[in-house]
Amino acid sequence: MSRFALAAFLLSLAACTPTFNWREVRAEPTQLRAMLPCKPDKASRTVPMAGRDTEIQVLGCDTGGATFAVLSGDIVDPLKDGQVLAQWKAATLANMHGTGPEGRPFLPAGAMALPQSLRVSASGRRADGSKVESQAAYFARGSRVFQAVVYADEVPAEAAETFFSGLRFE
Questions:
Q1: Which residues, 6 or more positions from 162, have their beta carbon under 8 angstroms from its beta carbon?
Q2: For residues 4 and 15, what is the distance between their CA atoms, to the nearest angstrom?
Q3: Which of the residues 16, 58, 141, 162 has an alpha carbon 20 to 30 A from that of 39?
Q4: Which domains does the chain have, with CATH numbers?
Q5: 3-state secondary structure 118-152
Q6: H/E run at residue 71
Q7: What does the alpha-carbon distance between residue 125 and residue 133 come to, in Å, rounded to a whole number?
């Protein structure tokens, strides 16, 4: 009988686990705080940005059929922030063969007010040819540039709002 009770208890815990289990995290090594709907993984990679190799830190996770990620890199020269944000947006849209990008100003608390600080929605294709939607925000603080992005077959509106509204600097 106790095995049955333990199994029932464990099943009830699994049933109570929400798809979007929101938590506030810090996007190291920055002062950016973000809300992510699952326990994030961390990674980094080096990419050419602003005429030099730049290490990009990635913090992200997958849940509910969506990928949520915050990326950042230090481009050293804050005078290039706007140019780099525009290039990053263009490269992301080109990579996903994005169509119909709709952008609106986006300025999380503590970010620099730049015309290129935008939240962009687009539809496109994954590498395997399947449909993908994205919502991405581009912003900067000092010499560090950021992209916060959600990819999914269909981006869940409420989850996207929670994710983007949770971005702020300490």
A1: 20, 22, 35, 37
A2: 16
A3: 141
A4: 22-169 (3.40.1000)
A5: EEEEEEEECCCCCEEEEEEEEEEECCEEEEEEEEE
A6: strand 66-74
A7: 8
Nearest to 137 by CA among 153, 123, 150: 150
pLDDT of residue 7: 43
Beta bridge partners of 64: none
- Check residue 94 and give left, alpha or beta (phi > 0: left; psi -120 to 50: alpha): alpha
Assess contact for 83 and 50: CB atoms under 8 A: yes
Tokens 């540039």, residue located = 145
Q: Which helix (H) or strand (E) holds 157?
A: helix 157-165
Cα 69 to Cα 15: distance, rounded to the nearest angstrom: 26
Give pLDDT tens digits for 134-166.
999 999 999 999 999 999 999 999 999 999 999
CA–CA dist 150, 48 (Å, integer): 23
Looking at the predicted structure, is the pLDDT value of residue 2 above 80? no
Show the tokens assigned to 82.
């706007």
Of residues 153, 141, 166, the one with CA closest to residue 62: 153
- Lookup: tokens for 92: 């992301």
